[in-house]
Amino acid sequence: MKHILITNDDGIHSPGIMALKEALMPLGKVIVVAPDRDNSAISHALTMHRPLKLHALQKDMYCLDGTPTDCVAIALNKIFKKLPDLLVSGINNGANIGDDISYSGTVSAAIEGTMYAVPSLAVSITGEPPFSYENTYEIIRELAAKTLENGLPANTLMNVNIPAGAHINGLRVTRQGRRIWKQSVQEVADPRGRIHYWIGGGVPLLDAGRDTDVHAISNGYVSVSPIHLDLTNHEGISYFRDDLDLEAIPSIAKFNPSS
Ligand code: MN
């Protein structure tokens, strides 16, 4: 019997998490641990300045007054007796592609699972609400089953984005593209004329090579990207070391004049 942890960043009341449960139930024993409210764009935040309360809503279904990362940490350390065979985060309402991946609580929950060496998937549905999840069930179940059977590369999660709607052109294995939001800070006046700022919205400037998640989604394909935990630009190491000669900067060298 396989053991599966489900979480999300949209909160326990999001219909996406029930859809995910529905999709994965046939694969094993599913336990849901999710934030008690919407935590979208909370990234990989961990709550360290207050205690956290876990509520059992029903059998194998819990909500936590914390972040998606908190949910994974508490599930893996306190709810599961041994590490689960799979973690799936989602189904997020809205794409997690390109630069948005850095902000995503959905992807960060899968990053946290990957840090514990639990094979982890982040799943999002793209497009605009209202979302209909029926078309995603089988796709998610097959991707999850393949992961359960074969595992994932070390330190790597599977980031899945599924186009909303009835028509899907196919599936593309992709790399992370770029999606930069232009004019994403709006200025608004309150009734007293004071200026406030809203972050969000704006116009996405796409830098979408043909092999990217951004390109796949804008062309109606399911996008599946292997996302690595190592943020190092390995080519940058020789630039820092040899071209910039950082290891020889005088402020450091003076600590050890003999070397
Ligand atoms: Mn979300």
Uncertain stretches of 5 or more adjacent residues: none
- Share of residues in helices: 25-40%
Q: What structural class do you assign from the helix and strand content?
A: alpha/beta
- Average of per-residue pLDDT values: 94
For the largest sheet, list the strands in their spatial order.
3-4-2-1-5-6-7-13-8
Q: Main beta sheet, described? A: 9 strands, mixed
Based on CA atoms alone, the radius of gyration comes out at 21 Å
Give the tally of β-strands: 13
How is this structure best summarized?
With 259 residues, the chain is an alpha/beta fold.
Protein model, in words:
The protein has seven helices and 13 strands. With 259 residues, it is of the alpha/beta class. It has one domain: Stationary-phase Survival Protein Sure Homolog, Chain: A (3-Layer(aba) Sandwich). A hairpin with a 5-residue loop joins strand 10 and strand 11. Bound molecules: manganese (II) ion. Manganese (II) ion (MN) binds next to helix 3.
Give the key terms.
single chain, 259 residues, alpha/beta, Stationary-phase Survival Protein Sure Homolog, Chain: A, nine-stranded mixed beta sheet, 26% helix, binds manganese (II) ion
